[in-house]
Write a structure and sequence with these properties.
single chain, Pectate Lyase C-like, eleven-stranded mixed beta sheet, 1 helix
Length: about 300
Amino acid sequence: MIPRGPLIVALIVVEIAILGGMVRAVSGGPSFPAMTVTLPMAPAAPAAPAGPFVATRDAFVESGPHKFFAAGPHPALYVDIGYADLTILAGSTAQIDASVSKSTDFGPLRATAPITGRQSGDAVRIETRQSDGFSIGDNRMVTVLVPPGTSVNVLRAGDIRVTGMRGDASIKSVGNGHVTIDDYNAPTLRLETSNGDISLNGVITGNLNVTTSNGSIDGTELQVRDGSVVTSNDSVRLGFAAGTNTVVTAETSNGSVHLFGFPAGTQAATHRSSDDDDDDDGASQTVRIGAGTGRLDVHASNGNIDLSQAG
């Protein structure tokens, strides 16, 4: 994954150097003294979550052997790998199996700080620290196979895919990373991206909290119940599975709210900021799904909200 800030700075520095050389070549004037530019370092990693982690860190060999950690009765996985990508798969296993694949996409400017793993009790932590030098991206892939009931806390990663989990999860993607969640069933799911899209497929949860600063949100076969919030600066498209019981309040500051497949009489309220039917107005609608015993608030700052219900 490519961090946007360092990449923009690097391009500006290269352009300055090229223009300077062209001016000297055309004018025939004296050479200017060499200019030293100090590039900004990426922000330091956030503090580790509270927990009795051991100090020993064992570095992964990229594209090398897997590392195996014992999974206790309450397994937990913490991941803090900067812009590297992440795949978490639930499997029929009594251990946590982790590996790192190598990427050379960014040549000599790729991130090279080692990715390490450590364990204390039931908790396994996989992390990397910032390199001493400058890098423009990290497309290494960390793949972790875990017991389905493992609780997951991703502090930072690039593109993230999570499949088959039955434990609570809190997941944050940085840079331009996207998040995809498939076949998820647990009480709580929290997701956040900086610039990437979020995709939810077959998610069943009582508490859904999804936020993207600059991406779209797509959901299919969803069952959400209570205390849930979905917020996007872009469009939101959510499809609800049979068996969902909640009241959805959808509001967009600059767009429209569209309902598809809902039975007659389930729409509780509607509002538009003007009388015409274009997509440049604010709009809000409330719709009851099933018994309507839960609550889901959906917000879009600059895009349409499409809600649909399976027959």
